[in-house]
Design brief:
Mean pLDDT: 89
Radius of gyration: 25 Å
Strand order of the largest sheet: 1-43-42-41-40
Helix content: under 10%
Strand content: over 45%
Length: 532
C-alpha cells in the first residue's frame, strides 16, 4: 500500500517551543535548484535559506529517518567525500562582517552516521567559493572561483584542509602559488608516488600557462612551479597524466602534460635534486621537462605498459592513430586505428594483462560510432594486430563506470542522452538500451547490480538489472529531479527518488523490488524541522 507522509506537523513538536521561527514561514526555493548529494546511506539536501543540511536515511523498506545539521551562513559549495561517509560544505559566512557575532568563512565536515549528525568546523581566513575534493577523501581544497566578488582577490590563493586531522594552527594550510601571470584552472591529486626523499602524494595545479606541484605530506613547503614556455606566449595545459613507473625505483615517476592546440606533449621526470641545488631547495626532487612531438594535436593521454615497457599513450584524431612514446628516449610509435578516437583509458584491471604482461586500452569517440580495444602487448613490431573495433549506432557523449562486482561493464551514453550501450569489456559485447525521452540520466547503484534511469522533471523512472538488462518502468506521482540507491539500516537497499519542486518531496522504494503501490511518499521535506 502506498503511504503519504507530510512533515510540517513536526514543527511545533521538535522546535522546543510553540512559536515557529520566521524561516519556516518563507518560501524555501523559488525556481532555484536544491543542492542534493547521494551518500552511502543517506541523501543530503542542502537547505540554503534554512542554513542547514537535511539527511534522509532509509531504515527499512518503508521507513525513512530524517535529521539535520546546522550550517554557517553564506553557502558556497558542497560535496560528499569519495567514500560517501561524510559531507563537506563550504560557507562564506556573513559578508561583510560588521558585528562581533557575524560568522566567518568555514569548511564543515559533517558525519550523518550518528542519530544526531556530528560537524567538524575548519575556520578559514577569507570567504572563498571554489571547492575540490581529493578522490581518497583525505583532503579538501578551497580556492577563489568566478563567483567570488571581493573588492581585491588573489586568484593564486589556495587553502588545503586535511580532513583526517582535527583543526589546528597548521590545518587548514593556506598558500599562495608563485605566479607568472596565470591563475589556477584545474587540480589533480596524484596517487602515492615513490619519489626521491620518500613516498608522497602531490597536488598538481594547472593554470592557463604553467603547472605547480605541491607536496601533500608537507604543504608548508613552497610549491614547484614549472613554466611551460620561456617566451611571452605560453601554451595552455589541458590534461595531466601521472605514473609511478617502477614502484621500487624512486627516480622514475613522471607527469605528462597535454597542451591546447599543440602537437607537443611535455614530460616531467621527477628526479633527485641536483647536488648544486640540494642545499637551497626544500624538496628532494625537481621536475626535468622534455618536449615530445606526437605528430598531431592529441585529444587524450595516459600511461600504459607494452611488451617493451612503460609508454605514454596519446590519441591523435587527425591521424586516426594512437601514438606510443618511450619516456626515456622520446621515441614514438604510431598505431593506425581506422577511426578517430578522442578518449582512452586503461582497462587492464578488468580484462587482465596480455600474454606479454602488458596493458589493454579502451578508446572511444564523440565523433566516431565505435569503440576500440588496443592490446598494448602486441604493438611492438606488429601494431596491425593490436586493434579490435566494435561498431555502435552513434558516437559516445560520455562513459559511466559500473561499480564492483560488475566493473567489467561500462555504460556508453549516446549523443542526446536517449541511446545507451552496456559495454562488456570481457565479452566484447555492446547491448543497447533506448529511452523515449532525450536527456535521460543513468545512475549505477553503488553495489553494481542495478541501473536507475530517469528523465529529469518527468514522472518516469526505470530500474534495469545489469545482468539481464530487463527494464522495469515505474510512473511516479511527481517529477523526478534525482534518484539515489542507498544502503538501508536493516541491511537492504533503498531507492530514493527526489522531487525538487516547491518544498521538496521524496518517494521511498525497495531497490531490489520497486513497486509504486508499495512506496512511501514524504511531502514538505523543506518545511519540516528535524532532530539535530
Amino acid at each position: 500500500m502506498r503511504r503519504i507522509l507530510f512533515f510540517p506537523f513536526l514543527l511545533p513538536l521538535l522546535s522546543g517551543c510553540g512559536q515557529r521561527e520566521e524561516v519556516w514561514d518563507t518560501a524555501p526555493y523559488d525556481g532555484e535548484p536544491v543542492p542534493v548529494h547521494g551518500m552511502s546511506g543517506a541523501a543530503a539536501i542542502v537547505d540554503i535559506p534554512g542554513d542547514r543540511v537535511i539527511f534522509a536515511s532509509p531504515e527499512t523498506v518503508d521507513q525513512l529517518a530524517l535529521s539535520q545539521a546546522p550550517l554557517d551562513h553564506g553557502y558556497a559549495a558542497s560535496a560528499p567525500t569519495a567514500d560517501g561517509q561524510k559531507l563537506v560544505v563550504l560557507t562564506r559566512g556573513d559578508v561583510p562582517r560588521r558585528r562581533a557575532e557575524d560568522q566567518g568563512p568555514s569548511l564543515n565536515l559533517i558525519d550523518p552516521s550518528k542519530k544526531v549528525p556530528v560537524t567538524t568546523r575548519y575556520e578559514l581566513a577569507d570567504p572563498l567559493s571554489g571547492l575540490t575534493m581529493d578522490p581518497t577523501s583525505a583532503f579538501a581544497l578551497v580556492y577563489p572561483s568566478a563567483e567570488d566578488t571581493s573588492f581585491v582577490q588573489n586568484p593564486n590563493e589556495l587553502v588545503l584542509i586535511n580532513l583526517k586531522e582535527p583543526p589546528s594552527d597548521s590545518n587548514p594550510a593556506p598558500t599562495t602559488l608563485r605566479s607568472f601571470g596565470g591563475r589556477p584552472q584545474g587540480f589533480l591529486f596524484t596517487p602515492e608516488l615513490s619519489l626521491p626523499g620518500g613516498k608522497t602524494r602531490l597536488l598538481v595545479v594547472s593554470t592557463d600557462r604553467d603547472v605547480a606541484l605541491m607536496d601533500l605530506s608537507a604543504p608548508e613547503k613552497p610549491e614547484i612551479t614549472v613554466k611551460l614556455s620561456a617566451g611571452t606566449s605560453s601554451p595552455t595545459p589541458r590534461t595531466i597524466a601521472v605514473t609511478d613507473g617502477d614502484e621500487e625505483d624512486p627516480n622514475d615517476a613522471r607527469l605528462a602534460i597535454r597542451l591546447a592546440s599543440d602537437s607537443n606533449v611535455i614530460l616531467l621526470d621527477l628526479l633527485p635534486t641536483p647536488s648544486d641545488k640540494a642545499k637551497t631547495s626544500p624538496h628532494a626532487f625537481l621536475p626535468a621537462p622534455n618536449i615530445i612531438d606526437v605528430g598531431g594535436v592529441p585529444a587524450d593521454i595516459t600511461f600504459g605498459r607494452t611488451d617493451g615497457g612503460l609508454r605514454l599513450l596519446a590519441t591523435v584524431p587527425s591521424q586516426q592513430s594512437l601514438v606510443l612514446v618511450e619516456p626515456a628516449t622520446g621515441v614514438t610509435t604510431s598505431i593506425y586505428l581506422g577511426a578517430s578516437y578522442d578518449h582512452l583509458s586503461i582497462v587492464t584491471d578488468v580484462v587482465g594483462q596480455t600474454k606479454d604482461g602488458a596493458d589493454v586500452a579502451l578508446l572511444w569517440s564523440t565523433e566516431s560510432p565505435s569503440v576500440a580495444f588496443v592490446a598494448l602487448g602486441s604493438t611492438i613490431g606488429k601494431p596491425y594486430k593490436a586493434v579490435e573495433r566494435l561498431a555502435l549506432d552513434q558516437p559516445i557523449e560520455r562513459v559511466i563506470d559500473v561499480p564492483a562486482p560488475n566493473e567489467n561493464l561500462k555504460i556508453l551514453v549516446g549523443q542526446g542522452g536517449a541511446s545507451f550501450v552496456v559495454l562488456n569489456l570481457v565479452a566484447r559485447t555492446a547491448s543497447p538500451l533506448y529511452a523515449s525521452l532525450g536527456g535521460t540520466v543513468v545512475r549505477p547503484s553503488p553495489d553494481g547490480q542495478r541501473l536507475w534511469m530517469y528523465s529529469q522533471g518527468t514522472e518516469n523512472l526505470a530500474l534495469v538489472g545489469v545482468q539481464q538488462l530487463h527494464p522495469q518502468n515505474l510512473l511516479l506521482n511527481y517529477g523526478v529531479t534525482e534518484t539515489f540507491d542507498l544502503a538501508r539500516k536493516d541491511g537492504g537497499r533503498a531507492a530514493l527518488a527526489l522531487h525538487g519542486a516547491g518544498s521538496m518531496a521524496m518517494t521511498l522504494l525497495d531497490a531490489n523490488a520497486p513497486s509504486v503501490d508499495q512506496s512511501t511518499e514524504y511531502l514538505g521535506i523543506l518545511l519540516g524541522d528535524y532532530p539535530q
